[in-house]
Design brief:
Number of strands: 37
Number of helices: 20
Length: 790
């Protein structure tokens, strides 16, 4: 039976040939390009290839982009051959003369001389690389593939581009460039390879490209406001209501409603009719709330997603989009319909089939980014392996949307050497045909992972260890030994520390003072070893990154240990330093310098997770206004889960409650994940005893630096309400709440009249109800008891 899957048909054409291609045995002769400082070769390309940029209709924009890429690649070939050999390599337009001289033929000129590549691959990415006595031919099925052929030659000669800008390139010196005779037809392993926000030269030289899967958040945009108003039942039922989003768009759709599916299909078909494209997204909007109606829930299979602490809704989603894909395929049989396998629909289906035109893009956002998938000590790693293997069985090809930065915190050095050396080959063995990781401009922290991922996506037969070794040796040169030790130590910190929470919440366990000191020693040693300007620049960039992280960790330790006085000043310095480094290293795509990325990762996340706490800590550090009753933050607490919500009725807040069996935790350094409750959603209690001497006629406060969810406070068995906003004079507003509800934000409880001189029992009931950073929950820092000084 003839295969109808658009990508599978392309793969089948290539299946009989190993992805590394066909090779004709060398004839044991040579082609001399450069010898003794003299060029013996000229590059020839057609007028079409070398033409200036052309304004063309949108339908041919991708083709024109590939032509421009090939033109720039020809320039690179001349430049880098010349740089290696210390000569000038000439580029000429048109075919070479019939006699005399060695020639490098590009694109159609090579095809006319030698014929087509012996293989074909998806998106016309196969290419041919021929060397005989007097001619080199570099060409492919398309201009994109011809560009690949050029960089195949340069790669074999040792050229590397590890980071954007000239500071990222490593070009060997070859006074003699001689090629052995060969004839090879080659292709990449994957249909697409790319990273976010590279500069065009880096992407071109590392052979990014191909046909990407479209999987952006788009599904709800295919239904209009007017349609949703006319058909209220098309809206998802959330918290008992079916209504439009406040922004007048469909926030969520009811996936049990076949009329909605038909409407989406009609709009997608219209889009493809008016603007033909190879891939279009059916991914829902971002977020974790979906329709709660009984019909939708009846479509679920009971497959529990432990990472999200809820039922998987993958089968529900596929039940909705499979009919859409069928209708679209009738009109546009080659349309590739991408969708994120994400949040509650990350797990593979149990009941529904995956339509031949649907392509999942696995985005494991709620899984560990630090530890390799093979490590079974990591929560949910077995589930992640099941996800990878399950989608490989369910779909003809899979896209992988791994993450090149740590969840919501991009300051820490994060090479992912062990993680991606394990995980990238694993997904390549499981039908990963589209390598589309999410990234930021963070070559200062994750250069190893970025390059490793692209190299393995091109050819997964390579040994990851060899690639990492090559990066360290070629990129750092004279400083290779200490920089190798530095990055290996960073990698060891991430992979051996049993800490699985997201963002910075587990950093006090990961990055101990001793480890930070060792990193500084290794970095100082590398700075001493660097010799060339390039080596010094590359080491200095990592040194600046480490300095920024040292300031970040200083604030974390100051918060945990009660040094609040400089927190706000340091926070301002951190933000200014991060922005300055982003500007300084913009050509290297480092420190988050790209439109929204800088504000999102460098400033926005820091504001969300840290700054408000630091500002409030600096406020209560003002000795002219406040004094502490606890000389240091209260780090040690008794801890107990309350899975059945019986803590209140069983007197867990009472002063005489027996908590001798409760676990002791350091709330400044340990998360719920640390305490073996990684994905837990629900209630937990903290208890401690504190002895104080109360001042006369002063308001007394319990300060919580941050929580993940709600906090209900008891002092000596009595409930303390939360008064929402501290006033400027240190008092509180009159709005009272049963508990504080927040995330990564400080809370001040007025405990005046509840606290006594002598020993007191403090109990806090916390509840985590929403998924935030992986593995957190409850208290996210050590509380303080303070009072007004006057």
């Amino acid at each position: 039976m003839k295969c109808r899957c658009p990508v599978h048909r392309l793969i089948c054409r290539f299946a009989a040939i190993a992805f590394t291609g066909l090779s004709v045995a060398p004839l044991w002769s040579q082609n001399v390009l450069v010898r003794s400082g003299v060029s013996h070769v000229t590059i020839f390309a057609s007028e079409r290839v070398l033409a200036e940029d052309q304004a063309i209709e949108p339908a041919r924009a991708r083709q024109e982009s590939h032509r421009q890429t090939l033109r720039e690649s020809v320039g690179d070939l001349a430049h880098y051959l010349g740089k290696m050999g210390g000569v000038t390599i000439e580029v000429k337009q048109g075919a070479p003369p019939a006699l005399g001289g060695n020639s490098i033929l590009i694109g159609e000129l090579a095809a006319e001389r030698f014929g087509a590549p012996a293989i074909s691959f998806a998106d016309q990415q196969a290419f041919r690389f021929v060397v005989n006595d007097d001619t080199v031919g570099l060409w492919g099925e398309s201009d994109q593939a011809s560009s690949y052929a050029i960089y195949e030659l340069l790669h074999r000669l040792g050229c590397r581009w590890y980071m954007p800008s000239e500071m990222g390139e490593v070009i060997p010196q070859h006074p003699e460039i001689v090629l052995g005779t060969t004839d090879e037809s080659l292709a990449p392993f994957t249909i697409y390879r790319g990273i976010w926000h590279p500069d065009p030269a880096y992407a071109r030289r590392n052979r990014c490209g191909g046909l990407p899967i479209a999987a952006g958040h788009a599904l709800e945009s295919y239904v209009t406001k007017e349609q949703l108003e006319a058909h209220p039942d098309w809206n998802a039922e959330i918290k008992g209501e079916r209504k439009l989003h406040p922004c007048d768009v469909g926030y969520r759709l009811c996936w049990a409603n076949s009329e909605v599916a038909a409407a989406v299909a009609e709009t997608v078909i219209k889009h493809l009719d008016s603007a033909p494209q190879k891939a279009i997204s059916l991914s829902p909007g971002d977020g974790v709330d979906f329709c709660e109606c009984e019909k939708c829930k009846a479509l679920d299979t009971g497959d529990w997603d432990s990472s999200m602490n809820c039922m998987s809704i993958t089968d529900r989603y596929l039940h909705f989009v499979n009919p859409i894909a069928e209708r679209v395929a009738e009109k546009h049989p080659d349309a590739m319909l991408g969708f994120l396998a994400y949040v509650q629909f990350t797990r593979p289906p149990l009941r529904e089939k995956v339509h031949r035109n649907l392509y999942p893009q696995v985005a494991p956002i709620s899984y560990s980014r630090a530890h390799p998938t093979s490590d079974d000590a990591v929560p949910d790693n077995k589930s992640l392996r099941h996800i990878v293997e399950g989608w490989a069985q369910a779909a003809p090809a899979v896209s992988y949307y791994f993450y090149t930065w740590f969840l919501a915190e991009s300051t820490a050095p994060f090479p992912m050497i062990t993680k991606w050396s394990t995980d990238v080959p694993f997904v390549m063995r499981n039908k990963c045909m589209f390598w589309q990781p999410e990234g930021i401009t963070n070559f200062e922290t994750s250069l190893h992972a970025i390059n490793l991922g692209l190299r393995l996506a091109w050819d997964p037969r390579q040994e990851p260890g060899d690639i990492i070794r090559e990066i360290n040796e070629k990129f750092y040169g004279s400083a290779a030994a200490p920089m190798t030790e530095y990055w290996n130590f960073v990698d060891e910190i991430w992979t051996t520390t049993p800490e699985y929470s997201g963002s910075h919440w587990g950093y006090l366990r990961r990055f101990t003072p001793e480890r930070l000191q060792r990193l500084r020693e290794l970095m100082n040693g590398a700075k001493e070893k660097a010799v060339s300007d390039q080596e010094k620049f590359r080491v200095a960039m990592v040194d600046e990154s480490l300095k920024l992280f040292e300031l970040f960790m200083k604030m974390r330790y100051d918060l945990a240990e009660g040094r609040f006085g400089t927190l706000l000043e340091d926070a301002d310095a951190y933000t200014a330093q991060a922005k300055a480094l982003a500007d300084k290293f913009e050509p290297q795509r480092a420190f988050g310098k790209m439109y929204w990325v800088q504000s999102l990762t460098g400033e926005f996340y820091f504001k969300v997770f840290c700054r408000e706490t630091y500002a409030d800590a600096a406020r209560i550090a003002d000795t002219a206004r406040f004094a502490w009753l606890t000389p240091q933050p209260m780090r040690k607490w008794k801890f107990m889960l309350d899975t059945d919500a019986v803590g209140q009725s069983n007197g867990w807040a009472d002063t005489d409650h027996d908590d001798s069996t409760w676990r002791i935790t350091d709330v400044a350094a340990e998360t719920w994940s640390t305490l073996d409750h990684h994905g837990y959603m629900g209630r937990a209690w903290y208890r401690t005893k504190v002895t104080v001497e109360l001042p006369q006629d002063r308001n007394v406060f319990l300060w919580l630096p941050a929580t993940d969810g709600s906090a209900r406070v008891y002092v000596n068995g009595k409930h303390v309400t939360f008064k929402k906003v501290p006033t400027e004079d240190g008092g509180t507003s009159t709005e009272e709440m049963d508990r504080f509800i927040g995330y990564a934000a400080p809370a001040n409880f007025d405990i005046t009249g509840h606290l006594e001189s002598g020993e007191n029992t403090i109990a806090i009931e916390c509840e985590r109800v929403g998924w935030n950073e992986i593995g957190t929950g409850g208290l996210l820092g050590a509380p303080i008891i303070y009072h007004q000084s006057q």
